[in-house]
Design a protein that fits this description.
The protein is α+β, with helices and mostly antiparallel strands. The protein is 42% helix and 32% strand. The chain has two helices and two strands, in the order ααββ. The protein has a two-stranded antiparallel ribbon. It is globular. The protein starts with a helix and ends with a strand.
């Protein structure tokens, strides 16, 4: 399993996040409050299987 610091260094070398990682971050920010089940393959997000949005009262 790859070290988190090594992964962060790899992102900096590669020039940032790939398209799927950027999309995942957009979805997380749009949800605000809730839960996501993210399927990961080879260290990359593949899909979101379950998404629950919560609304604070």
């Amino acid at each position: 399993m790859e070290n988190t610091t090594a992964r962060a260094a790899g992102i900096k070398k590669a020039g940032g996040l790939d398209e799927r990682e950027q999309k995942l971050l957009e979805i997380i920010r749009d949800v605000g409050f809730g839960e996501l089940k993210v399927i990961i393959n080879d260290g990359r997000p593949v899909r979101i299987e379950e998404m629950k949005k919560s609304i604070k009262l």
